[in-house]
């Protein structure tokens, strides 16, 4: 049995065509089913639904053999125990710094003042500002980062941006792009050896579907 960990929403939706290219069809829709384990048309392949941030944990500890996770999630997790053979180029967005449209970010950076930054992505934010030589107080949040600069909790946020409409709706502006983000295939290192006969053709078929050799 091969267990594939996916999160509901964009990652599930965008992984489906790649699975189809590998001959795998998920037999239930996670949006209407309450099941957390979904069967596929292949009796020896099943999908487990977990939170996006839990995918690396499931795969690293062998709760799933393989999974799909965003680069943001993988950097914050650290990636220990995971083999990352493929960038799937799905669920693309960017990690950016954003501030209120009336906040002088460049001024604060040039003066060398401390910056209060709210984010879910503390590792990425810490590294980014350390490289710039900007002193920051990081405030860890688990969601609705956009609210932090509007309420005075923070001067800036580090968050994912795709269309930019969430920032715009909250009168925030993107002042720096930190990195491009897409989702990757992650594989449990032990499973890759023990279940190689089943996993290798699956990884190869997905690689062919995204146009990358393995
Ligand atoms: O939503 P939930 O709390 O259940 O979990 P999650 O946010 O971790 O999962 P999900 O499914 O929302 O995101 C899974 C992965 O998709 C992330 O880890 C990213 O790698 C990737 N991804 C791609 C995104 C976005 N685009 C994205 N736009 N993840 C989140 N967003 C959010 C962003 O945080 C912001 O709140 O969408 C908002 C901005 O979108 P725009 O279009 O208004 O700019
Ligand atoms: Mg989300």
Describe the model:
The structure is a single chain. By secondary structure, the protein is of the alpha/beta class. About 35% of the residues lie in helices and about 35% in strands. It has helices at about 10-20, 55-60, 70-75, 105-110, 120-130, 145-150, 165-170, 190-195, 195-210, and strands spanning about 1-5, 35-40, 45-50, 65-70, 80-100, 115-120, 135-140, 155-160, 170-190. Strands 2-3-1-4-9-5-8-6-7 form a 9-stranded mixed beta sheet, sandwiched between helices. The chain is elongated.
What are the main properties of this structure?
single chain, binds magnesium ion, 214 residues, D-Maltodextrin-Binding Protein, domain 2, alpha/beta, binds phosphoribosyl ATP
- Residue fraction in strands: 25-35%
Major beta sheet, specifics?
Answer: 9 strands, mixed
Radius of gyration: 19 Å
The CATH level-2 architecture of the largest domain is identified as 3-Layer(aba) Sandwich
Global mean pLDDT: 97
Question: Which CATH class of the largest domain applies here?
Answer: Alpha Beta
Strand order of the largest sheet: 2-3-1-4-9-5-8-6-7
Question: What's this entry about, in short?
Answer:
With 214 residues, the chain is α/β, with parallel strands linked by helices. The protein has helices at residues 10-21, 55-60, 71-77, 105-111, 122-132, 147-151, 165-169, 189-194, 196-209; strands at residues 2-6, 37-39, 45-49, 66-70, 82-100, 115-119, 136-140, 156-161, 172-188. It is 34% helix and 33% strand.
């Amino acid at each position: 049995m091969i267990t594939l960990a996916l999160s509901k929403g964009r990652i599930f939706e965008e992984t489906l065509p790649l699975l189809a290219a590998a001959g795998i069809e998920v037999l239930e829709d996670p949006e209407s089913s309450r099941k957390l384990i979904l069967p596929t048309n292949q009796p020896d392949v099943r999908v487990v639904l977990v939170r996006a941030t839990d995918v690396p944990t499931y795969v690293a500890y062998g709760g799933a053999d393989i999974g799909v996770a965003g680069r943001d999630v993988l950097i914050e997790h650290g990636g220990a125990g995971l083999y990352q053979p493929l960038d799937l180029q799905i669920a693309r967005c960017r990690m950016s710094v954003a501030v209120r449209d009336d906040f002088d970010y460049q001024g604060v950076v040039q003066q060398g003042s401390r910056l209060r930054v709210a984010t879910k992505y503390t590792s990425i934010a810490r590294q980014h500002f350390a490289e710039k030589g900007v002193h920051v107080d990081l405030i860890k949040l688990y969601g609705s980062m956009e609210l932090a600069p509007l309420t005075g909790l923070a001067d800036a946020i580090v968050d994912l941006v795709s269309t930019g409409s969430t920032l715009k709706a909250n009168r925030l502006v993107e002042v720096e792009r930190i990195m491009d983000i897409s989702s990757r295939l992650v594989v449990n290192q032990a499973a890759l050896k023990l279940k190689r006969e089943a996993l290798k053709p699956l990884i190869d078929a997905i690689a062919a579907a995204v146009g990358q050799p393995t």
